[in-house]
Amino acid sequence: MQNRLLEIKKKFFEDVARYKKNHSLKFGIELIFNLDFWPIILIRLEELQQHLRGPLTIILKIILLVIRPIIQAASGTRIFYGAQFGGGLLLHTSVGIVIASKVKIGNNCTILSQVAIAHKGDGKGLGAPKIGDNVKLMNGCKIIGPITIGNNCIIGANAVVLTDIPDNCIVAGVPAKIIKKING
Length: 184
Prior knowledge:
Blueprint: H1 2-22, H2 38-51, H3 55-75, E1 78-79, E2 84-85, E3 90-91, E4 98-99, E5 104-105, E6 110-111, E7 116-118, E8 130-131, E9 136-137, E10 142-144, E11 148-149, E12 154-155, E13 160-161, E14 169-172, E15 177-181
Parallel strand pairs: 1-4, 2-5, 3-6, 4-7, 5-8, 6-9, 7-10, 8-11, 9-12, 10-13, 12-14
Antiparallel strand pairs: 14-15
Helix pairs in contact: 1-2, 2-3
Protein backbone atom coordinates (compact mmCIF):
# COMPACT_ATOMS: atom_id res chain seq x y z
CA MET A 1 0.00 0.00 0.00
CA GLN A 2 2.90 2.36 0.75
CA ASN A 3 4.10 2.11 -2.86
CA ARG A 4 0.60 2.96 -4.13
CA LEU A 5 0.42 6.04 -1.89
CA LEU A 6 3.83 7.20 -3.13
CA GLU A 7 2.62 6.73 -6.72
CA ILE A 8 -0.47 8.91 -6.06
CA LYS A 9 1.73 11.58 -4.47
CA LYS A 10 4.10 11.47 -7.46
CA LYS A 11 1.22 11.85 -9.93
CA PHE A 12 -0.18 14.79 -7.95
CA PHE A 13 3.16 16.60 -8.04
CA GLU A 14 3.41 15.92 -11.79
CA ASP A 15 -0.05 17.50 -12.17
CA VAL A 16 1.07 20.53 -10.13
CA ALA A 17 4.23 20.91 -12.24
CA ARG A 18 2.23 20.91 -15.52
CA TYR A 19 -0.23 23.49 -14.21
CA LYS A 20 2.53 25.71 -12.84
CA LYS A 21 4.33 25.63 -16.20
CA ASN A 22 1.14 26.13 -18.22
CA HIS A 23 -0.05 29.07 -16.12
CA SER A 24 3.43 30.54 -15.42
CA LEU A 25 2.99 30.21 -11.67
CA LYS A 26 5.81 30.36 -9.13
CA PHE A 27 4.07 28.55 -6.31
CA GLY A 28 1.87 25.46 -6.42
CA ILE A 29 -0.38 26.88 -3.69
CA GLU A 30 -1.69 29.40 -6.26
CA LEU A 31 -3.51 26.51 -7.93
CA ILE A 32 -6.12 26.56 -5.15
CA PHE A 33 -7.53 29.64 -6.92
CA ASN A 34 -7.64 27.92 -10.32
CA LEU A 35 -11.00 26.18 -10.89
CA ASP A 36 -9.47 23.99 -13.61
CA PHE A 37 -7.25 22.39 -10.96
CA TRP A 38 -10.05 21.48 -8.56
CA PRO A 39 -11.09 18.34 -10.51
CA ILE A 40 -7.45 17.18 -10.34
CA ILE A 41 -7.53 17.49 -6.55
CA LEU A 42 -10.78 15.48 -6.53
CA ILE A 43 -9.29 12.78 -8.79
CA ARG A 44 -6.22 12.35 -6.59
CA LEU A 45 -8.23 12.36 -3.34
CA GLU A 46 -10.50 9.64 -4.76
CA GLU A 47 -7.43 7.57 -5.70
CA LEU A 48 -6.11 8.06 -2.18
CA GLN A 49 -9.43 7.06 -0.62
CA GLN A 50 -9.38 3.77 -2.54
CA HIS A 51 -6.13 2.76 -0.83
CA LEU A 52 -6.61 4.00 2.72
CA ARG A 53 -7.79 1.69 5.48
CA GLY A 54 -9.58 2.31 8.77
CA PRO A 55 -11.48 5.38 9.99
CA LEU A 56 -9.63 7.73 7.62
CA THR A 57 -11.31 5.99 4.69
CA ILE A 58 -14.79 6.74 6.03
CA ILE A 59 -13.94 10.36 6.86
CA LEU A 60 -12.40 10.96 3.43
CA LYS A 61 -15.33 9.25 1.70
CA ILE A 62 -17.80 11.57 3.47
CA ILE A 63 -15.70 14.62 2.57
CA LEU A 64 -15.58 13.49 -1.07
CA LEU A 65 -19.36 12.96 -1.15
CA VAL A 66 -19.78 16.57 -0.03
CA ILE A 67 -17.14 18.25 -2.21
CA ARG A 68 -17.65 16.24 -5.44
CA PRO A 69 -20.86 18.04 -6.50
CA ILE A 70 -19.41 21.40 -5.46
CA ILE A 71 -16.26 20.88 -7.56
CA GLN A 72 -18.31 19.61 -10.50
CA ALA A 73 -20.63 22.61 -10.38
CA ALA A 74 -17.88 25.18 -9.90
CA SER A 75 -15.52 23.80 -12.56
CA GLY A 76 -18.12 22.57 -15.06
CA THR A 77 -16.61 19.10 -15.27
CA ARG A 78 -18.17 15.68 -14.79
CA ILE A 79 -15.60 12.98 -14.14
CA PHE A 80 -17.20 9.74 -13.05
CA TYR A 81 -15.77 7.74 -10.19
CA GLY A 82 -13.55 4.92 -11.44
CA ALA A 83 -11.82 6.74 -14.30
CA GLN A 84 -8.03 6.31 -14.11
CA PHE A 85 -5.47 9.01 -14.86
CA GLY A 86 -1.70 9.07 -15.20
CA GLY A 87 0.39 11.88 -13.76
CA GLY A 88 0.78 15.28 -15.36
CA LEU A 89 -2.90 15.63 -16.27
CA LEU A 90 -3.87 19.10 -17.50
CA LEU A 91 -7.52 20.14 -17.81
CA HIS A 92 -7.26 23.40 -19.70
CA THR A 93 -10.45 25.45 -19.50
CA SER A 94 -12.26 22.52 -17.94
CA VAL A 95 -15.86 23.63 -18.61
CA GLY A 96 -17.95 20.89 -20.20
CA ILE A 97 -15.48 18.02 -19.80
CA VAL A 98 -17.23 14.67 -19.28
CA ILE A 99 -15.25 11.50 -18.62
CA ALA A 100 -17.00 8.17 -18.05
CA SER A 101 -16.08 5.59 -15.44
CA LYS A 102 -13.42 3.01 -16.33
CA VAL A 103 -11.77 5.34 -18.86
CA LYS A 104 -7.97 5.05 -18.71
CA ILE A 105 -5.87 8.09 -19.56
CA GLY A 106 -2.06 8.00 -19.67
CA ASN A 107 0.60 10.42 -18.47
CA ASN A 108 0.95 14.07 -19.50
CA CYS A 109 -2.38 14.34 -21.29
CA THR A 110 -4.08 17.65 -22.02
CA ILE A 111 -7.88 17.89 -22.17
CA LEU A 112 -9.57 21.08 -23.34
CA SER A 113 -13.15 22.29 -22.88
CA GLN A 114 -16.25 20.39 -24.04
CA VAL A 115 -14.40 17.07 -24.45
CA ALA A 116 -16.45 13.90 -23.86
CA ILE A 117 -14.89 10.48 -23.32
CA ALA A 118 -17.69 7.97 -23.11
CA HIS A 119 -18.87 4.38 -23.37
CA LYS A 120 -20.68 3.33 -26.51
CA GLY A 121 -24.44 3.47 -25.94
CA ASP A 122 -25.61 0.76 -28.33
CA GLY A 123 -25.75 -2.12 -25.83
CA LYS A 124 -22.84 -3.90 -27.55
CA GLY A 125 -19.15 -3.11 -26.86
CA LEU A 126 -19.72 -1.17 -23.65
CA GLY A 127 -16.01 -0.91 -22.82
CA ALA A 128 -14.40 2.40 -22.03
CA PRO A 129 -11.77 4.20 -24.11
CA LYS A 130 -8.06 3.88 -23.31
CA ILE A 131 -5.92 6.92 -24.08
CA GLY A 132 -2.12 6.76 -24.23
CA ASP A 133 0.56 9.13 -22.96
CA ASN A 134 1.13 12.70 -24.22
CA VAL A 135 -2.25 12.96 -25.94
CA LYS A 136 -3.95 16.31 -26.61
CA LEU A 137 -7.73 16.30 -26.81
CA MET A 138 -8.75 19.57 -28.42
CA ASN A 139 -11.97 21.50 -27.76
CA GLY A 140 -15.21 19.62 -28.30
CA CYS A 141 -13.78 16.29 -29.43
CA LYS A 142 -15.64 13.09 -28.56
CA ILE A 143 -14.00 9.72 -27.87
CA ILE A 144 -16.66 7.01 -27.91
CA GLY A 145 -16.58 3.28 -27.29
CA PRO A 146 -14.10 0.61 -26.33
CA ILE A 147 -11.30 2.10 -28.41
CA THR A 148 -7.61 2.84 -27.90
CA ILE A 149 -5.84 6.07 -28.75
CA GLY A 150 -2.08 5.64 -28.98
CA ASN A 151 0.68 7.76 -27.49
CA ASN A 152 1.58 11.24 -28.76
CA CYS A 153 -1.68 11.84 -30.63
CA ILE A 154 -3.62 15.03 -31.20
CA ILE A 155 -7.38 14.74 -31.55
CA GLY A 156 -8.66 17.78 -33.46
CA ALA A 157 -11.38 20.12 -32.31
CA ASN A 158 -14.88 18.63 -32.61
CA ALA A 159 -13.55 15.32 -33.98
CA VAL A 160 -15.63 12.22 -33.21
CA VAL A 161 -13.33 9.24 -32.67
CA LEU A 162 -15.04 5.86 -33.08
CA THR A 163 -12.08 3.61 -34.01
CA ASP A 164 -8.60 2.87 -32.67
CA ILE A 165 -5.89 5.43 -33.43
CA PRO A 166 -2.23 4.32 -33.59
CA ASP A 167 0.65 6.21 -31.96
CA ASN A 168 1.88 9.55 -33.33
CA CYS A 169 -1.16 10.69 -35.30
CA ILE A 170 -3.24 13.80 -35.76
CA VAL A 171 -6.91 13.02 -36.36
CA ALA A 172 -9.83 15.25 -37.33
CA GLY A 173 -13.34 15.05 -38.73
CA VAL A 174 -16.66 13.36 -38.14
CA PRO A 175 -16.02 10.48 -37.98
CA ALA A 176 -12.35 11.15 -37.21
CA LYS A 177 -9.71 10.08 -39.70
CA ILE A 178 -5.93 10.24 -39.55
CA ILE A 179 -4.87 13.41 -41.34
CA LYS A 180 -1.17 13.32 -40.50
CA LYS A 181 1.45 11.03 -39.01
CA ILE A 182 3.78 12.72 -36.53
CA ASN A 183 7.42 11.67 -36.54
CA GLY A 184 7.72 10.19 -33.08
